[in-house]
Predict the 3D structure of the following.
Amino acid sequence: MAGQVGAAAGEIVRTRREPALVALRRQRAARRRLTVWGAGTVVGAGGAVGALVPMLSSGATTSGVFLLVVCLGLLLWAGAGAVRAVHDLRLRSRVVAALPPPQPSRTAVAGEIRGPVDRLNKMSDDLRHLVAMIGVVDEPGVLALRRDVVEAADEAEQRLRRIARELTGVLRARRSAPADARPSLEETAGRLRADLDTGVAEYGELVGAATHAVEASRQLSTRVFAVPEVTDRLQALATGMRELSEG
């Protein structure tokens, strides 16, 4: 139980610090600021029109002029804020587009399978770091393939985490199950554990392939026709991850 509480706390800290999630939170905050400034602009414009129309029809009054000045000031202030908010939202959106999608959530699992799940956690972090090092940074095709590899890897990781969650449920049920139900639970647990171990091992092989791709891309970076070869390696990685996600 203490280990699961610690894992849950670690997951909360990780999600707070993950760059993709931080960027998404900042993008949502920028959208909220734009909404507020936009509402202020609308209120200022509406108030200015409402103050100006009576002045045109029946003449200016002190209170009317004061209201018009206040509304125009609000309009200018909110309009300037809206312009800044639009610029900030564009910047935040570019950051979100440049970053890989957030990593799959990491729920706590039974202590018996914490070893392979911890290895999966580490390999997932390593893979994201390695994929970012493959190829030419400013080549659009390579950037798109990097994202494709990460998305395929996330699908494979989610499949393995589903197996881990199912296995955790079976292991918990086995502890309190009657004696006649335990053999079937043992069989199910054994099958799920084999699937988990095999999947984590295959995921590790693909992470190893990513390591080799990084080394190869560094050698290819000095060659004129490096991009097609880097693209082939990224496509192979993405294909391998999709095959793993399909089981």
Q: What stands out?
A: The chain has a mean pLDDT of 81.
